[in-house]
Amino acid sequence: MLALEKICKSYDTRHGRRQILKNISFTLERGQNIGILGRNGSGKSTLIRLISGAERPTSGRIRRGMRVSWPLAFAGTFAHNLTGLDNLKFICRIYDVDHKKVLPFVEEFTELGEQLREPVQHYSHGMSARLAFALSMAIEFDCFLIDEALVVGDARFHARCLDQLFNKRKDRAFIYVTHNAQHITEHCSNAVVLHEGELWQFPTVDAAFEFYMTVPMATSR
After folding, report:
1. CA distance 87 to 117
2. Which backbone phi and psi does 154 adopt, to 5 degrees?
3. Which domains are delineated in the chain?
4. Which residues contact 138 (CB under 8 A, 6 or more apart)?
5. Distance in angstroms (rounded) separating the CA atoms of residues 75 and 56
6. 5 compared with 137, residue with greater pLDDT
7. Which residues pair with 19 in a beta bridge?
8. 162: pLDDT confidence band, cut at 50, 70 and 90?
9. Which of 45, 16, 39, 23 is nearest to 148 (CA)?
């Protein structure tokens, strides 16, 4: 189980302390999924970073009873002076995975060719994202964190990503944050709305969508 208990997050800004998330609480069991709708600037990516462990909450607690992925396609933790292959080996060691078993999948999925053996610092943003996404699939997490802002690439690659996530791994738990209500209705059985720092919960996806359509654009952070 993944459980968020009264999570708050604030940042210091030039205009003083600003609270982004206020008392966020929910639980997710293995095999369940939840879509989080929110306008740009509502704090969706902040919430994903907290769940992944990339940042700590200002207050509250996150309990992870299952293996949770990093945000899909997030390449921020790569050692840029190392090759893509060396980064793959390093991440596999962290998660106790034999890199030789996952290498064929990563090579095929990323289509990086010889670039996989070149330093990541020479990659484009899209190449780094393809490698990060492929590694997320290769590690086989119990729960995937999907921030649509981090999924890049052309339509063909995007379709392959969706197939890997929602067809081949449909038995896994996932959290999908987006401002695209259509994606939520297509892929999620539950939905909430992140608005003014709070998580609004609803009995159905349709009810969440109806409320979301009334939500104004968030102010810039």
Report:
1. 10
2. -75, 175
3. 32-53+67-214 (3.40.50.300)
4. 92, 97, 102, 105, 106
5. 19
6. 5
7. 10
8. confident
9. 45
